[in-house]
Design brief:
By secondary structure, the chain is an alpha+beta fold. 30% of the residues lie in helices and 22% in strands. Among the domains are: 125 residues, 3-Layer(aba) Sandwich (Rossmann fold), CATH 3.40.50; 140 residues, Topoisomerase I, domain 2; 142 residues, Topoisomerase I, domain 3 (Distorted Sandwich), CATH 2.70.20.10; 111 residues, Topoisomerase I, domain 4 (Orthogonal Bundle), CATH 1.10.290. The chain has 17 helices and 29 strands.
């Protein structure tokens, strides 16, 4: 600690792991603290968080649970003679730094950035502090506000016109549309039959004269017919003609091909490579990469740049020369394909290239080795491959031409590596060698075997997670920091499921995508989404204004949403197939969208409640109570399953929306405890289900938002007046108020 009145230098980062690593590199005068991510954010599910009239001003609030973090930083900042904000070197990091400044009330904090967490990089960054980049910060804020306005307005409309609980997103919806379009292409695909003709030939000469490199020659050389017949008859004709012909080598082509090393990893192609080679999802790849970065093993993992620093290039050169030899070294830089790539950043690379083993975690180590091999191989010489093509043609052998016909040529291809170059560091990219024997023009060949196999053209493949990331990057949708989140979000929403590594839209996902494509095509198009990304980049570069950008978007967008408020609610998705009949009345059925996706409903609903799954299985009708509806006097009361448990309502819903209340104001269903809510005094505590399981909430929701974790006992706490709830065997009853001592009576201080 500094002797100057015990003053300290306070350095703030996002993560505890990052703080731990940096602490090892700094003197005792520095105190390192972590904000543990964002400390402020927009309030959840609230459009009012943004003051549109005053220039799209966001109203942030402290993230729940971060009060202690802020208090700790504020206390340390008062003792410090210097405060350094060392959050990540991107827009998100810049925004976190600004939020720390605002929440803590820092007057003049310094901003330091580094692309790698090494002693040299950290100390060098500290020597060159700067102010918070307001352009970068505003670019992040603009993205956040855009996403909130887009999602809030469109999601609200989807709730009204499709089903409650669905959502739309500025980048998630275009990503979903891409998957749905591919799914429709697959369904519309009409397969075409074709035949592949394979043959095996052997040279007509002694074994000793063959190239001793080939062991496969004794078993024959595989060839394939250059013509692809469309019918079995055509294929059979070629096979029969080939059996009667004499065969010779028509052409031998050998060509040396140079294989250039690939560029170091960017975020997107790291996700793609990790998926293909290691089977990792984009989200898991980024999680592991984050750990490697925070431990100081790799450079910053959110980047679209292929640049390497001159120091890194030199370090890799020395390693290659020492490890593989001078001829393998070929230092080079790569052009970044991304239009708005941040060239100040580096590609993803090891921070200490001499280190091959860095982690005891096997997945982290595998990902590190992938990054290491790509970075090293990028600075190595081209590989040289010899590609060989042998063409075989049929000869008449004195037979009349008409008896032989025009038999297509057969071709065999092979390759072998003459110089491995960069493949030395990345052997997984080499592929399998196919070495053909040395043959020359006119050499006779013997047909050993020939077969034809009927096949059919296949539809396009569904996107994998990595494939979708590649497609998003290609179309300019999203940025390195958002790819993994986009893929994860559409799965978390239930719009997409992963089957055998492929992404398949669900029925709900298709309905939502079709709705948006029909009514808001412009806003989920590739062109519009890419333009918005470009405009956010322009804000980051200081070439575009925050308010003007949001005005240009939100004015027309809001008009479009308002104009669609009068479109009819989509109660059905079309008629069911004619053979699908109602299990109750045997009448026609229609397709509807439920909480679990599409299902068949009787066309006479609500007069008939017959229903089937989309697979055709009959669904059990709501259980009748034997009571008539007291409101419409036509329907019968039935027990239904709702979002928050069972309740009793009219069978004629939605024509009649009567819900039975008990004497306490609750819904009187199986999930209603009958315990009166002490907060509003109107509703009762009802069993509900959320993402984390069963809980109990007031039936007067949303007017009353009282919730407790366990079933209420009906008693009130004698200390605080909150509801008592069921506990465990050792603690049969405890208070629902977390702040009350009766919440954890086992922890009472005696």
């Amino acid at each position: 600690m500094s002797p100057n009145n015990n003053k300290i230098k306070l350095l703030i980062v996002e993560s505890p792991a990052k703080a731990k690593t940096i602490s090892k590199y700094l003197d005792d005068e520095y105190t390192v603290r972590a904000s543990i991510g964002h400390i402020r954010d927009l309030p959840k599910s609230s459009k009012n968080a943004i003051d549109i009239e005053k220039g799209f001003v966001p109203h942030y609030e402290v993230v729940k649970g971060k009060e202690k973090v802020i208090a700790d930083i504020k206390s340390l900042a008062k003792k410090a003679d210097e405060v350094l904000l060392a959050t990540d070197p991107d827009r998100e990091g810049e925004a976190i730094a600004w939020h720390i400044k605002e929440a803590v009330g820092l007057e003049n904090p310094q901003r330091v950035v580094f692309n790698e967490i090494t002693k040299e990089a950290v100390n060098e960054a500290i020597k060159h502090p700067r102010q918070i980049d307001q352009n970068l910060r505003q670019a992040q804020e603009a993205r956040r506000v855009l996403d909130r306005l887009f999602g809030y307005d469109l999601s609200g409309l989807i709730w009204k016109k499709l089903r409650y609980g669905l959502s739309a997103g500025r980048v998630q919806s275009p990503a979903l549309r891409i998957l749905v379009e591919r799914e429709k292409d697959i369904r519309a695909f009409v397969p075409e039959a074709y035949w592949v003709i394979d043959a095996t030939f052997s040279p007509v000469r002694s074994r000793s004269s063959l190239d001793n490199r080939s062991e496969a020659a004794s078993g024959g050389i595989p060839f394939v017919c250059q013509e692809v017949p469309k019918t079995a008859a055509e294929a059979d004709k070629i096979v029969e003609q080939a059996k009667t012909a004499h065969w010779k080598v028509k052409e031998v082509e050998e060509k040396e091909v140079l294989r250039r090393a690939r560029a170091p990893f960017t975020t997107s192609n790291l996700q793609q490579a990790a998926s293909g080679r290691l089977g990792m999802s984009p989200a898991n790849t980024m999680r592991l990469a984050q750990k490697l970065y925070e431990a100081g093993h790799i450079t910053y993992m959110r980047t679209d740049s292929t640049n390497l620093s001159s120091l890194a290039v030199n370090d890799i050169k020395n390693l290659v020369v020492n490890k593989y030899g001078e001829k393998y070294s070929q230092p080079q830089q790569y052009a970044t394909k991304s239009k708005n790539a941040q060239e100040a950043h580096e590609a993803i690379r090891p921070t200490h290239i001499e280190q091959v083993k860095v982690s005891v975690n096997p997945l982290e180590q595998k990902l590190y080795e992938l990054i290491w091999s790509r970075a090293v191989s990028s600075q190595m010489a081209e590989a040289v491959t010899l590609r060989t093509k042998i063409a075989a043609s049929a000869q008449s052998s004195g037979a009349p031409k008409e008896t032989i016909g025009d038999i297509p040529d057969f071709v065999s291809t092979g390759s072998r590596i003459l110089f491995d170059g960069w493949l030395k560091a990345d052997p997984h990219s080499a592929g399998e060698e196919v070495i053909l024997p040395e043959l020359k023009f006119g050499d006779p060949l013997t047909l050993q075997d020939i077969t034809s196999t009927g096949k059919a053209t296949e539809p396009p493949n569904r996107y994998t997670e990595a494939g979708l990331v590649k497609e998003l990057e290609k179309r300019g949708i999203g940025r390195p920091s958002t790819y993994a989140a986009i893929v994860k979000t559409i799965q978390d929403r239930g719009y997409v499921v992963k089957e055998n590594r492929s992404l398949q839209p669900t029925a709900t996902g298709e309905v939502v995508s079709d709705f948006l494509d029909k009514y808001f095509h412009k806003y989920i198009s590739d062109e519009f989404t890419a333009i918005m990304e470009d405009e956010l980049d322009e804000i980051a570069n200081g070439n575009r204004k925050y308010v003007a950008t949001l005005k240009e978007f939100y004015g027309p967008f809001k008009k479009e949403v308002d104009a669609k408020q009068d479109i009819p609610k989509i109660s059905d998705l079309g008629a069911a197939p004619a053979d699908i009949k109602c299990p109750v009345c045997d009448g026609p059925m229609i397709i509807k969208l439920g909480r679990s996706g599409k299902f068949y409903s009787c066309a006479k609903f609500p007069d008939c409640h017959g229903a089937r799954t989309i697979d055709g299985q009959a669904l059990e009708a709501p259980k009748a109570t034997g009571e008539k509806c007291p409101e419409c006097h036509e329907g019968k009361l039935v027990e239904r399953d709702g979002r928050y448990g069972k309740f009793i309502a009219c069978s004629r819903y939605p024509k009649c929306k009567y819900i039975k209340k008990d004497e306490n104001g609750g819904q009187g269903g199986a999930g209603d405890t009958g315990v009166k809510c002490p907060e509003c005094g109107v509703g009762t505590m009802v069993e509900k289900r959320g993402r984390y399981g069963v809980f109990y909430g007031c039936s007067n929701y949303p007017k009353c938002k009282n919730i407790i974790k366990s079933k209420p006992t009906g008693e009130l706490c004698k200390l605080c007046g909150h509801l008592m709830m069921q506990g465990t065997k050792t603690i049969p009853e405890r208070c629902s108020n977390k702040a009350c001592p009766n919440n954890r009576p086992d922890k009472k201080v005696t």
